[in-house]
Amino acid sequence: MNIALFGYGKMGKMIEKIALKRNHDIVAKIDLDATDINFSEIDVAIDFSMPNAAYGNIKNCLEHNVPIISGTTGWLQDYQKAVALCEKNNGAFIYASNFSLGVNLFFELNSYLAKLMAPQDQYRVAMEEIHHTQKLDAPSGTAITLAEGVIENTNYTKWKLDSAGNMEIPITAKRIGDTPGTHTVTYESEVDSIEIKHTAHNREGFALGAVIAAEWIVGKTGVFTMKDVLNLS
Ligand SMILES: NC(=O)c1ccc[n+]([C@@H]2O[C@H](COP(=O)([O-])OP(=O)(O)OC[C@H]3O[C@@H](n4cnc5c(N)ncnc54)[C@H](O)[C@@H]3O)[C@@H](O)[C@H]2O)c1
Ligand SMILES: O=C(O)C1=N[C@H](C(=O)O)CCC1
């Protein structure tokens, strides 16, 4: 498969390594300006760039009929525009806040736990995410997806960074060293706590998931999620 990388930073480089191991070719590495791209040779594009760049990269690929996988976080105000563009162009697109298999299983566990906790008024939920100090966005995309999983299954109405009001989920974002990504969901009562936690040991899981999603999407049309890719629906 011919892959184009949009964003050649920490994730772009890790994705390249894994894609080459899986016998794919990297035919373009676009790290800043998207000039001189030969879209006709690209089977699929993978975007791990920056919050202010992701939508432009997605738009560019969809308008050139190239399927695109995006793992960039912090651009979700434009997500519905990307969905509409994908549908208009009969294209193929996946965004995931986290491509690792472990985190996608953790999302399922989080939703199941939220369903169990919904009738238990004596518990209050809270979330914490820890990432490296270069991360631009807070809270992490993964923490937002976890909060959405709780909101879908309980009476909580929204999430908020740091302090939160009644029926709001407080998310604490910490930036420590080179932490690849740690997420904790805690339900606290007067008498005990229940905690689930996912710890990424490195970036390989994210990168492998993105390459698997890219392999999966080629030849398909539509807007998909990692649930579709991993058959978790
Ligand atoms: N979904 C996931 O599984 C997952 C996992 C890890 C990181 N991320 C997200 O992926 C993004 C990238 O992470 P990273 O650690 O590689 O960051 P990074 O800062 O190491 O790399 C980002 C790269 O994007 C480049 N860039 C800037 N503008 C660009 C443009 N217009 N087009 C193409 N490239 C451009 C930068 O020059 C930089 O090299 C972040 O938003 C991060 O939150 C998501
Ligand atoms: O390193 C990052 O930046 C990460 N971003 C994603 C997020 O915001 O959830 C996934 C984990 C790593």
TrEMBL record:
Pathway info: Amino-acid biosynthesis; L-lysine biosynthesis via DAP pathway; (S)-tetrahydrodipicolinate from L-aspartate: step 4/4
Catalytic activity: (S)-2,3,4,5-tetrahydrodipicolinate + NADP(+) + H2O = (2S,4S)-4-hydroxy-2,3,4,5-tetrahydrodipicolinate + NADPH + H(+); (S)-2,3,4,5-tetrahydrodipicolinate + NAD(+) + H2O = (2S,4S)-4-hydroxy-2,3,4,5-tetrahydrodipicolinate + NADH + H(+)
GO cellular component: cytosol
Biological-process GO terms, alphabetical: diaminopimelate biosynthetic process; lysine biosynthetic process via diaminopimelate
Keywords for the protein's UniProt record, in alphabetical order: Amino-acid biosynthesis, Cytoplasm, Diaminopimelate biosynthesis, Lysine biosynthesis, NAD, NADP, Oxidoreductase
Record-annotated membrane-spanning stretches: none
Enzyme class: oxidoreductase
Domain Dihydrodipicolinate reductase C-terminal per the UniProt entry, residue ranges: 102-230
Pfam family, one: DapB_N
Family statement drawn from the similarity comment of this UniProt entry: Belongs to the DapB family.
Complexes and interactors: Homotetramer.
EC number of the protein: 1.17.1.8
Residues the record lists as binding (S)-2,3,4,5-tetrahydrodipicolinate: 132, 141-142
Binding site for NADP(+): 29
Binding site for NAD(+): 71-73, 96-99
Active site: 131, 135
Compartments where found: Cytoplasm
Protein name, entry field: 4-hydroxy-tetrahydrodipicolinate reductase
Classification via InterPro entries: DapB_C, DapB_N, DHDPR_bac, NAD(P)-bd_dom_sf
CDD domains listed in its UniProt record: DHDPR_N (cd02274)
Matches recorded under Gene3D superfamilies: Dihydrodipicolinate Reductase, domain 2, NAD(P)-binding Rossmann-like Domain
Role description: Catalyzes the conversion of 4-hydroxy-tetrahydrodipicolinate (HTPA) to tetrahydrodipicolinate.
Entry's Gene Ontology molecular function annotations: 4-hydroxy-tetrahydrodipicolinate reductase; NAD binding; NADP binding; oxidoreductase activity, acting on CH or CH2 groups, NAD or NADP as acceptor
Ranges where the Dihydrodipicolinate reductase N-terminal domain occurs: 1-99
